[in-house]
Amino acid sequence: RAESAPKGLRHTGRVQGDRALPAYPKCHTLHLYHVQTIVPNHVVTKSHFWYFVSQLKKMNISSRVIVSYGQVFKKYPTWIKNFGTCLCHDSPMALTTCTK
């Protein structure tokens, strides 16, 4: 069983993967897919990776390969990054704003 992080603690993981090459490939290049997610552990990171790749490309479960996995560390971990986005739409009836 994978170690789970304490509740609320998350890390950023980056996964690269592709389908496995056949024994005699016609093309020797891999088409790597990259996903970077914020999750509690590496098992969930890999699960998210295969979910998002399956939305893009149809692959057999037996032919999938994780090429690399790594944790992404912040350059300045003591900095607090708070940010927001604002969306404004001027419809014929009224001005609509959405802030998150």
Structure, described:
The chain is an alpha+beta fold. It has a domain at 11-75: Ubiquitin-like (UB roll) (Roll), CATH 3.10.20. The protein contains one helix and five strands, in the order E-E-H-E-E-E. The strands form two sheets. Strands 2-1-3 form a three-stranded antiparallel sheet, covered by helices on one side. Strands 4-5 form a two-stranded antiparallel sheet. A hairpin with a 4-residue loop joins strand 4 and strand 5. The longest helix is centred in the middle third of the chain and has 15 residues, at 42-56. It starts with 10 loop residues before the first strand and ends with a strand. The relative contact order is 0.22. The model has no long low-confidence stretch (mean pLDDT 77).
Count of DSSP strands: 5
Percent in helix: 10-25%
What's the gyration radius in Å? 20 Å
Structural class: alpha+beta
Just name the CATH architecture of the domain at 11-75. Roll
CATH topology of the domain at 11-75: Ubiquitin-like (UB roll)
State the shape: extended
How far the N terminus sits from the C terminus, by CA atoms, comes to 36 Å
Count of alpha and pi helical runs: 1
Provide the residue-averaged pLDDT.
Answer: 77
**CATH first level of the domain at 11-75:** Alpha Beta
Order of helices and strands: EEHEEE
Low-confidence stretches: none
Q: Largest sheet at a glance?
A: 3 strands, antiparallel
Strand order, biggest sheet? 2-1-3
GO cellular component, one term: ribosome
GO biological process, one term: translation
GO molecular function: structural constituent of ribosome
